[in-house]
Amino acid sequence: MHTIISPLPNRTRSPATEPASHNAFRQPNYDCQEQRDAMKLTVYVPGVEAVGVDIEARGADLTITARKAHLVRVNWQALHLESAQRDYRLKLRLGAGFDYASMDAEIRQGVLTITLPKRNVSAGHLRRVA
User: Fold this and answer.
1) What percent of the chain has pLDDT over 70?
2) Are 99 and 110 in contact (CB under 8 A)?
3) What is the set of domains in the chain, with CATH numbers?
4) Going by C-beta distance under 8 Å and a sequence separation of 6 or more, which residues neighbour residue 92?
5) How does DSSP assign 8-27, residue by residue?
């Protein structure tokens, strides 16, 4: 009798180099207010300092990653707080009508405020569709 044993899948990456799972982050609450010449985005990220905020604009997408300062105490004991201590990530598709290079951001007491100026659209750049 012959037994066929299939080899185990070859793991080329160590667990430390694998990307963080989607569950490592949670989506924060946010509010968008359109103004005449800009858009004001307010993101609520309690427990986050300015050092932990990363804002990335790629094409028409804006990604905000806000990481909390994770302190490990000497008397640490797991209390199922892992879900409450997760970092924040917000991905928004805002479009190409904003000047991402000129955005302004500030954070105070866990409230991140981002102002995105609108691009100036001159008549020469408009095109007829119909």
Assistant:
1) 63
2) no
3) 26-119 (2.60.40.790)
4) 41, 61, 62, 63, 64
5) PPP--S-GGGSPPPGGGEEP
What amino acid is encoded at 42 in this protein?
A: T
Helix, strand, or coil here: 63?
A: strand
pLDDT for res 95 = 87
Place of tokens 């509010």: 31
For the chain, how far is it from start to end, CA to CA, in angstroms? 74
At 65-102, the pLDDT tens digits run 999 887 666 666 656 555 567 899 999 999 888 999 99
User: Per-residue pLDDT for 18 more than 50?
Assistant: no
Dihedral pair phi/psi, residue 113, rounded to 5°: -115, 120
pTM of this structure:
0.68
